[in-house]
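Record type: ASSEMBLY
Status: queued
Input:
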Amino acid sequence: MIPFNKPHLTGKETHYIYDAVNSGKISGNGKYTKLCQRLLKEKYDFGKCLLTTSCTDALEMAAILIDIKEGDEVIVPSYTFVSTANAFVLRGAKIVFADSRNDHPGIDEHSIESLITSKTKAIVPVHYAGVACNMDKIMQIAQKHDLFVVEDAAQGIDSYYINNHGKKQALGSIGHLATFSFHETKNVISGEGGMLVINDSQFEKRAEIIWEKGTNRSAFFRNEVDKYQWVDIGSSFLPSEIIAAFLYAQVENITNIQQKRKSIWERYYNQLIDWAAQNNVGLPHVPSYATNNAHMFYMVCKDSSQRDKIINHLSKNNILAVFHYLSLYKSPFYELDYSGGRLKESDRFTETLVRLPLYYDLTDDELTKIIYTIISTPF
Amino acid sequence: MIPFNKPHLTGKETHYIYDAVNSGKISGNGKYTKLCQRLLKEKYDFGKCLLTTSCTDALEMAAILIDIKEGDEVIVPSYTFVSTANAFVLRGAKIVFADSRNDHPGIDEHSIESLITSKTKAIVPVHYAGVACNMDKIMQIAQKHDLFVVEDAAQGIDSYYINNHGKKQALGSIGHLATFSFHETKNVISGEGGMLVINDSQFEKRAEIIWEKGTNRSAFFRNEVDKYQWVDIGSSFLPSEIIAAFLYAQVENITNIQQKRKSIWERYYNQLIDWAAQNNVGLPHVPSYATNNAHMFYMVCKDSSQRDKIINHLSKNNILAVFHYLSLYKSPFYELDYSGGRLKESDRFTETLVRLPLYYDLTDDELTKIIYTIISTPF
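Status: finished
Output:
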């Protein structure tokens, strides 16, 4: 069986875990947390970085930081993971769903402005498949209407947006806040795990407090206060050093990981392109303002029946390919509260997008088998 | 230096982590999560168990499950960790603080009934130092006033309440819901980590959904629904299998860990009892309805000056002893919202309680040194 995903060990993970245990500190915010945060901050020119137990938790921190209250509105794409919306719902927000672009599952930047009301507080672009949303346009809308931008960069590590002046900016370095995932299905992993990036420095101090259960513990350890106390709401957003130690072995190896993933992605693309054109199957589109971090290789079928045929044919040949999100505006939880119109691109990606196996340890032979099997799908 | 705490490795932690990685599954709710949940449930006769990323997160799940809304009141001891209160504040609750008993930092069960109003929704007894609160009394009050009981058993693993009929009930098996911590300072650890126990079966189904980010993913994997969707609020409460694998090596060894901790606790008690009596220092009180899980060895000094002298004398001799909570009703975050009176026992424990080093790898020689140093404190 070729699975859809297989977590990859770089080799040093358990070594670092041993080291953390032997140092006598495996709760959060220790040596490996700081090492991960520093390495990622420097490599990608991020603002302050705080590891979290998941990208969901990082989104919840963002919702607390921008002070979401009952009745505030947040603009979120419909074609995304539930947490992009749930994190704001937990604080009382009304979610206003935006459609995807026609050429890409990312938010249609041209649809955003018409969704803004006097209650809108934030826009949450999701960099689907690690491919940038149109951030110049989104930041410009946010500035005009005095809104916060929280980049959901769950899939966006090591990917870039190329701005109007030709400058490459790492995804997660642009919005006021940004969130990453290190879930086992991502490029660098810690099983479950995430990170909040704070690019707007007004949020730095409070972020540290919310991260540490609403206490000023970080300030206490810097000797800025003489005891640590309950000063705000918050949660236990910080991961164990066991997780941070595992993650450090991964982020240290990111160049190597990315090289391998990109070579797999490119083989898929180059060897499927003719077949795709002949069969009206769309391959991933990377706009000129975006780079590709090879997080995902997906195809957009002409209809759900074509997708079923491909998934079933792969399955019969012991290859697991999977569809992805279901339009959130139609979810059992939110459909009654949703007052907007039909989001046809979100529905189309719901019905027609399929993801192929893509992981570090995928062999050349396995890749050949997957590509051959797709091409031989009987329609 | 003798630290206050040192995490203990049983030896199999990294072996199980390797196994988890090699099995191809290190995100949450895998083999080791299920092994931990089953072992703990069976050993302690708990209801459904769900591992969480922290005890804080388990408390937040409890607050969502009992449907805490703006304005609901929750009775919480003042002498506890911030998360006991914060988890309910995050959902909009007003916290009504209760005082501690005179002979023990646990909630004074006789003070509870006068704090109940028509808005009260839950009582959250905290089993301080792993010593049971008077659960018969508390459950009886809850039943009379139709309230939920959420046991904060962060420190309470492997400890028991002996009920009015002489039956031993594990802490965490009594309230409608209960929460545990596996933070590195606890008896069994995973760095950061926790667990929610659901003893009232009406909450089981929803707990699984809230745990999995508000989706019916668990039902999907049991083939009860044909796709998994957004059906409720929720968060990513489940820990990585890396954490669960580590924890499993610990819970497998709980008998051995507990034996060692209890022998340390008893040496402290037996060798300090005469000195304590002579110096008006209180040693831990274990009521007749409670057992001792040797989570903590604390002393209650006659005043804060005596405590300072002991802590300083130990510190000069390279031994780290630490005080504990600060009365939450006086915290910067809550003092303006607090409308009750002075809680004198909570204030007294804030000012006079000191905790001594207690961990598996504490040697006999180190223990001798600590006891000797305490006894030689110049007053």
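Annotation: Chain A touches chain B through 64 residues (CB under 8 Å).
Annotation: Chain A has a mean pLDDT of 97.
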